[in-house]
Amino acid sequence: MAQSIKRHAAHIVQELEHAASLLTEDTGERLTEAILGAGRIFVAGAGRSGLMMKAFAMRLVHLGLQAHVVGETVTPGITKGDLLLIGSGSGETRTLIGMAEKAKALDADVAALTIQPQSTIGALADIVVQLPGVPKDQASGRDLTVQPMGSLFEQTLLVVLDAVILRIMESQHQNSGKMYGNHANLE
């Protein structure tokens, strides 16, 4: 008998709770400090991970920070004092490796959120936040998720980035009411 959508949703939430329990207490603290100390924040990711990074950039803008999505037509050049934040489960996405290398060559800082801290992007990064998840091909045979491909990583990425937003809100004494003033109003 097929499982109901409600049961699948409950199972996904259980997986996310388990993933959150695998995080260390200091997960994201260095990243939060780097974001607050950066001149500008640039975010990048590919596919669904890229969508999570775009959602994070939106919240950073709501906080009044200068955040940009790499690849958008209005994104300025990165320079020293800026931070490139990459979300990549594998840490081996070729286009993202090139971005990390270019940012390092321009003396910008690089932070990575990844399953694989020993990956190419992880090795290039100044800050690495290891997140639980399984590779898209799930060839490792681990039973961390019933979800397809990189879904657990992508969901955990969004949850951790939203937790970083809450830490920034705390440090800046922000609330949703203040942030709403920076929300898009030409919708």
UniProtKB/TrEMBL annotation:
PROSITE patterns: SIS (PS51464). SUPFAM superfamilies: SIS domain (SSF53697). Residues 31-174 form the SIS domain. CDD domains: SIS_PHI. GO terms for molecular function: 6-phospho-3-hexuloisomerase activity. It is an enzyme of class 5 (isomerase). Its EC number is 5.3.1.27. Keywords: Isomerase. InterPro entries: PHI/rmpB, SIS_dom, SIS_dom_sf. Belongs to the SIS family. PHI subfamily. NCBIfam families: RuMP_HxlB. PANTHER family: 3-HEXULOSE-6-PHOSPHATE ISOMERASE. This is 6-phospho-3-hexuloisomerase. It comes from Cohnella yongneupensis.
